[in-house]
């Protein structure tokens, strides 16, 4: 988190960060990956942002929630753009919580990586009050500062979840396996591209995993795996210190040409062309 906060000219050693809502100046235009949870509420102005290589316009009352491993790139912003940010690490939030997937299983992440919704003025004001309250308590000298902050963050997440579609399917069994599958992908996708590895890790059959993933996401395991592998590729390509050969090796492709074919199939661009378009050098 420290490295990402430095992109916003913020210095912090804590396991969570909440901003004051002031202008953050020029936003980073090179893609970066957030390895923590994020809640972002636009207060004023607008910005054009790419999230996992999909472009969105983020304007007043737009709310973004994203989970770890989401790749972000700011393309442009208005002069008056302001936003409230809440970053937090999962381990901080889940201290003394028995269910490690409680955040992922909520309707905040029905898209399984990020979600963008537009709030009403009233809902936006409610959320701003909670974020300001978190800022106040996290800056206090209370001996219970961490416990208070953790409780307020949970409150914020539950309020946001309540804003989401209340008809969202809450059948937890296939979702639980799906989220566990996604957690495994975050850890192993650069080395393991065999569906059987993930089925074995989840102690289910290959056929059952295919059925569960299709039911939970509408996609095949290979399609989800390709999405996570592409995210990893975007993140690595955003680092100009790594050449294409190093990236192909790190992602466990048998040859640079194999990586190039995979990337072009997913994006219609070669890795080299993608870097040129993104001005990464």
UniProtKB/TrEMBL annotation:
TM region positions: none
Domain HTH araC/xylS-type: 179-277
Signal sequence annotation: none
InterPro entries: Homeodomain-like_sf, HTH_AraC
MF (Gene Ontology): DNA-binding transcription factor activity; sequence-specific DNA binding
Keywords: DNA-binding, Transcription, Transcription regulation
Pfam families noted in UniProt: HTH_18
Coiled coil: none
UniProt xrefs under PANTHER family: ARAC-FAMILY TRANSCRIPTIONAL REGULATOR, TRANSCRIPTIONAL REGULATORY PROTEIN
Protein's name in the database: AraC-type DNA-binding protein
Lineage of origin: Bacteria, Pseudomonadati, Bacteroidota, Flavobacteriia, Flavobacteriales
């Amino acid at each position: 988190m420290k490295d990402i906060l430095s992109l916003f000219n913020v210095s912090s050693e804590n396991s969570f960060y909440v901003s004051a809502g002031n202008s953050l100046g020029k936003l980073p235009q090179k893609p970066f990956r957030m390895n923590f949870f994020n809640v972002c509420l636009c207060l004023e102005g607008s910005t054009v942002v790419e999230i996992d290589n999909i472009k969105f316009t983020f304007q007043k009352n737009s709310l973004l929630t994203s989970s770890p491993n989401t790749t972000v790139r700011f393309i442009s912003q208005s002069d008056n753009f302001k936003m409230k940010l809440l970053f937090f690490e999962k381990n901080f939030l889940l201290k003394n919580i028995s269910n490690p997937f409680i955040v992922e299983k909520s309707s905040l992440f029905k898209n399984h990586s990020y979600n963008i919704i537009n709030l009403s003025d009233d809902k936006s004001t409610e959320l701003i009050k909670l974020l300001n309250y978190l800022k106040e308590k996290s800056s206090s000298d209370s001996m219970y500062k961490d416990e208070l902050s953790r409780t307020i963050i949970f409150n914020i997440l539950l309020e946001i979840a309540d804003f989401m579609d209340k008809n969202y399917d809450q059948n937890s069994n296939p979702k639980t396996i799906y989220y566990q599958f996604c957690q495994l992908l975050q850890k192993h996708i650069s080395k393991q591209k065999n569906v059987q590895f993930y089925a074995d890790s989840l102690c289910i059959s290959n056929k059952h995993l295919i059925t569960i993933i299709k039911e939970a996401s509408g996609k095949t395991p290979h399609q989800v795996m390709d999405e996570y592998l592409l995210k990893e590729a975007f993140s690595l390509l955003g680092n100009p210190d790594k050449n294409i050969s190093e990236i192909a090796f790190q992602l466990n492709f048998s040859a640079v040409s194999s990586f190039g074919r995979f990337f072009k199939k997913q994006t219609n661009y070669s890795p080299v062309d993608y870097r040129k378009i993104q001005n990464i050098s």
